[in-house]
């Protein structure tokens, strides 16, 4: 199990930090001129808006929980699971769709850096920002349509039931009776007999879920390829940090959430910890960018200095 109060506090804290750090980044981009940024600022604004939206969604769902059983897992929110079934389910789907935007935007960031910094194509490098924006909108429409299609098939048929131990855990740890309607969806990879001696695979759900992971993995490959090219040129610690953190805090937790139940082992509330880990990246991503851009760091130092007594300022 997991302590509900600490879990909720952590997610609320990360949501608040995400809102604050993204607003700080937007302020710095607006106030500090960095010529090298160019139209990349537009992508920063879009990412900041999306991160804040995700943080607000996470604060409403407070938080999204995932409890994993044998070949199955349940996704629900403490803040919305007691809503009427349909609004509660919609809140989970909206949160998931917003959450997936992290991967789409990450791939856009790395692709843009690769094209502009490497100058591999004069045509792409000279494209105006509105062409990039239009391409991004088309990509988002395709990406979200794909996610909506797969997520809409997450809810298994009524004759597919999660294992008895998972049903028991949900009532013991969260006070939720799965025989009654509540805002959630549960993914059942396979149905076990009461004696756990036989098993029947739910292949449509397996295919749908792995397809989602495949789309995310494809975006991860794009990110890694572009990051490798950029790192070979820049050879800076900042480019390494901006690659490692997304992999560790976004791609890895999601991969574990999808793949671990397929092993047939019971991981229980580990899904809650993995989901909480994934909320860290939207909060720290703006801070990483601020630390990696010298002019932003100097602006932060000057802002802090203004709050100090004159004798502690470097200029004195």
Automatic annotation (TrEMBL):
Stored InterPro entries: 7TM_GPCR_serpentine_rcpt_Str (IPR019428)
Keyword check for Flavoprotein: no
Keywords on record: Membrane, Transmembrane, Transmembrane helix
Residues that span the membrane, as ranges: 9-28, 40-61, 73-92, 98-117, 129-151, 205-227, 239-261, 273-293
Highest taxon in the source lineage: Eukaryota
Keyword Chaperone: no
Protein name: G protein-coupled receptor
């Amino acid at each position: 199990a997991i302590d509900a109060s600490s879990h909720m506090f952590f997610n609320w804290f990360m949501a608040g930090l995400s809102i604050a750090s993204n607003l700080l980044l937007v302020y710095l981009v607006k106030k500090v001129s960095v010529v090298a940024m160019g139209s990349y600022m537009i992508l920063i604004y879009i990412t900041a808006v999306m991160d804040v939206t995700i943080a607000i969604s996470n604060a409403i769902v407070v938080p999204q929980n995932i409890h994993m059983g044998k070949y199955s897992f349940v996704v629900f929110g403490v803040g919305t699971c007691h809503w009427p079934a349909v609004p509660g389910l919609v809140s989970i789907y909206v949160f998931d769709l917003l959450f997936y935007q992290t991967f789409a935007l990450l791939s856009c960031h790395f692709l843009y850096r690769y094209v502009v910094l490497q100058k591999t194509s004069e045509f792409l490098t000279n494209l105006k920002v509105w062409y990039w924006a239009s391409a991004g909108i088309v990509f988002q429409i395709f990406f979200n349509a794909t996610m909506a299609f797969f997520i809409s098939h997450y809810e298994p048929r009524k004759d597919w039931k999660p294992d008895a131990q998972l049903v028991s855990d949900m009532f013991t740890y969260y006070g939720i009776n799965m025989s009654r309607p509540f805002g959630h969806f549960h993914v059942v990879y396979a149905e076990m007999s009461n004696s756990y001696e036989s098993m029947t695979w739910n292949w449509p759900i397996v295919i749908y879920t792995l397809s989602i992971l495949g789309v995310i993995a494809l975006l991860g490959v794009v990110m890694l390829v572009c990051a490798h090219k950029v790192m070979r040129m820049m050879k800076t610690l900042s480019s390494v940090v901006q690659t490692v953190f997304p992999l560790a805090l976004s791609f890895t937790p999601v991969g574990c959430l999808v793949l671990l139940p397929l092993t047939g082992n019971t991981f229980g509330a580990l899904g809650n910890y993995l989901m909480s880990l994934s909320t860290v990246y939207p909060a720290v991503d703006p801070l990483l960018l601020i630390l990696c851009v010298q002019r932003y760091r100097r602006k932060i130092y000057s802002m802090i200095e203004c709050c100090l007594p004159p004798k502690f300022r470097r200029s004195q």
